[in-house]
Amino acid sequence: MEYLLEHQQLTSDKPAPPMCATNLVELVKQLIKEKRYDGVALLFTSENESERNVDCLKTVGIDLYHHVCVPNLTTQVHDEQLPLYNCADELLYLIATYGPMEELLLELLELIEEQKSEYVFSSSLRALQGVLLRMGEKKPRALEWSLNSIHTRIEGLPLPKYLREGYDKKQGRLLEQNGEIEKLLMHYITLNLFYETLLNDMLSHQRPHEQQFFDTGINRRNVLCCFLIQILGKPLALLDLTVDQRRTNTYTIQCARKLTESATHCLVDPLRLLSVGEQRVRWKRRLDGEKGVHEMSSNNIFLIEEKLPLESLAIYFYMLLVEEVSLNSVPKIYSPLYIFEASLYYVNELLAHGEPPLYERALLLAKRLCDNLSSTKITAISLQLEVHKNFCNSLCNIVGYSSQNFLRQIGVKLLRQYILQFDDEGRYLVLKNLLRTVAHHGISGYLAILYKDLVANALVSAKTDLPSSFSGKDFHTIFLQYICRLPQGAKTDLIEHADKVISSLNALRFFTIKDLHNRTGLWDIMPEIEKQFLDPLRKGLDISVAHYKAELKRVECGLDDEAEAERKSLEILDINIANATSESGNLDADLTRQRKIEILNQNLCTFDLIRSLLGRTVECVESSNRMLKSAEI
To answer: Does 14 score more than 70 pLDDT?
Structure first.
């Protein structure tokens, strides 16, 4: 480490302590041996001896630290001999106040990283605070090293596994009852006592012009600001950060609120860092191996990932914009659209992680951003930014595959709100690209219905021609390529694609009834729809129903047990059986016969529903065709 090199230089020519100082060390050790702890205190408080003894700490402070403080600052001493622990704690604070700063700093950093006791952590931070206050503005690197050691310790604390696996609202209310989480929060509370005094000292020495002209270099204010935001990330970000007016203000919220407010005091304008996400993602800097930092980022501490992770910065903006902590500090001059697009990089950063609690933070942040846009429309040209594509893909993955039901519910509402926030052309482009790329058939069906609703609204609101995004070529593209289409024709697995097929039939039936004047251009492509969708669907239904009825009969007669035995013998011979793992076409051998019969009957009911919708759709097509031909005559 960098500070170890300095330590070697500082201690290489260390002078021998004077005799009076050596006597002080022996006297303190003797008083402690005799358990005369008040006598140790008198050495540094009495009028006759305090001045001389305090002066001696400059030379023997480190000796006292090693011989008295380190052996007695332990959990065992705290639990069994509390007066002795308190004596060592007070002596450590005196050494920090009057002893050699540089040497003690290095010793304290080692103590913070290696000692696992929360009592020792509290004592170490108290002493470290005194050392850093003495150093002042001249040693920002010393503050940086100290905060790095603190972060390393907190990051290494054990946590329950379910924090990374996700939890629901009821479980979230009980998080603070866990012993490991309680210990984590105690570290944060202790940390607040440590940095609050440093922050006040820093702000008291800040010059007026420094608030208007924001220096991004490595100084004490920026180092502390980066740390406060960094510590908002994991592990604290995995806890429940939602402020609920119906419950008591939790320790988690208190810690997160205090960190957010303190970081805002450093920044004055909290949105000063809003552009950092875009700068990091869109304009990645080359690494400079010699400097160990990104090119040019040495002039801006906020661009260095190690100093300010994007994940932590995302949590800061979540606390600011969603939980509205320090929101009144944001100037009113910022455009809601700018805040939306700049913050979307942070939403994507949280969605890129694997922890469901971070997904929730991301979804709630994105929802608040959309809410703040109000009637402001996002233009289609904004879709040239890669951030929108990444957001859509991540959001659809959560809606389709998240194990947390409430996340899927939030996600599907957000997806609709996000799409509707665009202008007509933007909505069309988003829906077209999602229908082209999304693999989840339930989402594809939902998007098809959403497009149908948009066109339906346009049919009502537009007095003359429909917008080009909802008619003509664009309408043809959506319907022929993505809605009214079976990927494998009549051989398509209709159980797997059931949601998509049902949505497509509903959309098609709606327009055959509502668009008799061909404003969308539907009737121009109806022959193609019949050829590539309706006819193959009819054939596919006949094949699927016949297959499932035959399978149902075999299961009811018990013939499936013989087939399973034959399948296993073929697997032993390593013979590949086509579709042997298909979820819809074959059933798990571990299922009971009754359960197999239930599943097969459910699938046959799905086919009946599709057949019924198909019949009504074809009937509407034929009826509307007759009406159109009559009108032409």
So the answer is: no
